[in-house]
Amino acid sequence: MQDQIENQGQHKRLVLITGPSGAGRSTSIRTLEDLGFEAIDNLPLSLLPRLLEGPPLGSDLALGLDVRNRDFSVNALIESIDQMSNLPGISPEVLYLDCRRDVLLRRFSETRRRHPLAPAENPDQGIARELDLLVPIKARADILIDSSEMTPHDLKAEVERLFTGETGRHLAVSVNSFSYKRGLPRGMDMVFDCRFLRNPYWDESLRGLDGRSDGVVDYVSQDARFDGFFQRVFDLTEMLLPAYRDEGKAHFAIGFGCTGGQHRSVAIAEKLSKALADHGWQVSTRHREIERKENAASQPIGALNVTAK
Asked: For the structural domain made of 2-168, what CATH number should be given?
């Protein structure tokens, strides 16, 4: 098998997509298929070696794996990941679709589907079992996407941002802003608290704006501590990103938090995103609280459905 893989002449990406039922796995698989991946859903783990021993991979491969797989087990999946990591010519990555328990329950209630781990019980019981079962796999994830606040369109766009571009030794960076009142976003690798900076909220002319506007940026940057803080964050990030890339990490998430997630954290996130992009990194930017407001204003209740599987 190794000789066949080496003869392909280049690395192929092998993305294993998993996560709790209802978190958006099917949406992610379809998105990768649209990006040119060969997509296979619900492949039994016992058939994975046979797949890799077959004809050389002609394209990148996306495999959907979850508890519905006939021979699914956490230990078997982790063992398969370890084995594939040692194969030349293949770059395996684990994409974990995460989601809050209350959101998963709402999605199952709206679609009226049975949970695969609780077909004759309340879906909440199956959700709890599945989240507990997947803890070790979540810890092994190379890329973690929390779809709790995402529409299917948002999730598709996020997967596209993470998987378009170069293959191989590639690191996608996401820079996020958030409000501490709503808790830290999941999957952050590095988080900074911006609440020490002067707050535009107390200026009535700026209160209704956000950190993408010049007025807010000017107000925040006038804080005597702003330049020193930003430069240290940028220097630290520039030092860490190549190290994580060289270790094979595919995605690095940076978070900036403030009280409301509208002014200071947004301004810093925008500035860092631009600086990293100017230095050649592939960067996506997400402002959780702003997106949440925009989604609430433009979509009816229930529009956050991700097809439950």
From this structure: 3.40.50.300
180-205 per-residue burial string, b: 16 or more CB within 10 A, e: under 16: eeeeebbbbeeebebeebbbbbeeee
Q: Give the C-alpha separation, 142 to 146, whole Å.
A: 13
**Structure confidence by residue, pLDDT tens digits, 63-114:** 988 877 666 778 888 888 777 777 766 778 899 999 998 999 888 877 777 7
Nearest to 50 by CA among 275, 59, 40: 40
Structure tokens at 153: 């369109």
Q: Parse the chain into domains and list their residue ranges.
A: 2-168, 175-298
Longest dimension (CA), the chain: 67
Distance between CA atoms of residues 208 and 19, nearest Å: 37
- For residues 56 and 299, give the distance between their C-alpha atoms in angstroms, rounded to a whole number: 45
| Digit-coded pLDDT (tens) for 204-232 | 999 999 999 999 999 999 999 999 999 99
* Local structure of 145: helix, strand or coil: strand
pTM above 0.85, yes or no: no
**104 — phi, psi (to 5°)?**
-60, -45
